[in-house]
């Protein structure tokens, strides 16, 4: 498989704070954080606490089905957020990685017509990403082992 980037829980704690510090240093004050589930849930939670933003929305997007296995196009799964709730808001989209960028692009484009401003924050951005995120903790071209997904499920159906 080649070299991998490993993120530990300790490093994730620092990464979340550093990402929030970058948002704050830039003067961006989001009204709400859009979390791309599942990996983005962790990032959005960390950013929500660090930026004192309590309004978090979750969007479920399916794209990856396994290591280097993905659908042709990302799909937003129900329940899809109500665009009316986003009108005039400053939105920060949070995800764990901008790999191809297709998932972020789908969510950003969904928001773009309704919100005052939308920016993206990710832990990792890969060189091939279609989206250049405003806030990136690290850039890499390696496969990333995240602490929340590096081990298999505890319970199998």
Automatic annotation (TrEMBL):
GO molecular function annotation: glycosyltransferase activity
Keywords: Glycosyltransferase, Transferase
Any Pfam family matching the protein: Pribosyltran
Presence of the UniProt keyword Glycosyltransferase in the record: yes
Domain Phosphoribosyltransferase as annotated: residue spans: 9-149
UniProt signal peptide: none
Annotated protein name in UniProt: Phosphoribosyltransferase
Organism: Amycolatopsis pigmentata
